[in-house]
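S., here's the first fold you wanted:
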Amino acid sequence: LAGERLETLDPPASARPSRAVRDALPQLQSDLDRLVVELERHPAPDGSCRRLMRLESGRTIEGVDLPRDGLCVSTQVGCAVGCRFCRTGEDGLIAQLSPLELLAQVALARRERPLRRVVLMGMGEPAHNLAAVLEALAVLGDEGRLPHKNLVFSTVGEPAVFGRLLDHAVRPALALSLHTLAPDRRAELLPRAPRVAPGPLLDAALDYADRTTYPLLVQWTLLEGVNDSRDEALRLAGLLHGRRAIVNYIPFNAVEGSGYGRPPIERGVELVRTLKGAGVLATLRHSAGQEVDGACGQLRARHAAPSKGGVALSEPGRP
């Protein structure tokens, strides 16, 4: 995990893994090969690539190769939060991933390209699998030599977890899935997230960002007519002005039966301009994978759906 193609690279001594790790690499590589196997890949024009992977248990997870040497990994099979706009949580939490299963996703990606950034933003809520996530982060930030600010912990908001992260040897950057400032609306969109009002939750996350000096990434999935108003953007700007934060607007990837729609791209551009005009950094994410129903959880759902012959490819232990 400490470097790409160790047999052909000659990194400086300060960047090389310890001798113990180098000696253990052949067996480690064999173990990782067994833990995570790629089943499908769906590249996109922007350089990203969505992957469907099978665990040793037979269950499936998803990951995304991101542009500029980034990687999005899963921390669970399924998710207990049940966000209304996300396919992953429809079946609830199925299984926790082990630290090695987390690291195996990184090792798989590193065989093909350099890797500079890992985001825990795939299937699952990292705060609900905290022990395994912290162990994997320790390896990535120590033996893996990845800058701590390039390890991103994405959460719907578990304030008690922020303190645990601050006490950890490897303190990742924080991404908060906020999506709205209205408490009732957030409770509807994220039905099993902690019942913390968006304002205090945002304050706690901003305090974490101040203490780590890494900007908070505020994630906001844009749902047409729900949370894409200019007024709410201005309220958000008022809370973030002068603070260490970046807003990442994410156009909704259609999920059948969700009841939500994707706003026109012009709406997202307008919201970014609104925030920037108020002195707040903001971006509009290109949501790759729509042409293959590639939103989080959809590749896995397609794989588990009945085939043309009527045979269901179900998850092990699932009906």
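And the second, which I think is the more interesting of the pair:
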Amino acid sequence: KTDNLTAVITVNGKEINRIDLISAEDEVFTLDTNPKVTLEIKDNKIRITNALCPDKTCEKCGFLENTGDTAACVPAGTVVTIRGSSASDDLDAVAG
């Protein structure tokens, strides 16, 4: 784990918010996306708790708490990724 975890939220490829998870207070909030996506911050972690889409795969990702953790709601075009405090902690590529 790192001392500085940031949740980066993008919608349709555009960053809409960065949340410092270490200093963030617990809260639940809904993004103005289509379909709507609800996120929860709790104990320095974040997750998608409700998505008004058919398959709800993003809800099954659970809490994101480590650098590189990612959850995506494809119908809403929403991606949540955890970034660390140093560039070496960030995920640069995925090999398949």
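Why I say that: DSSP finds no helices and seven strands in the chain. The chain has a mean pLDDT of 88.

Talk tomorrow,
H.
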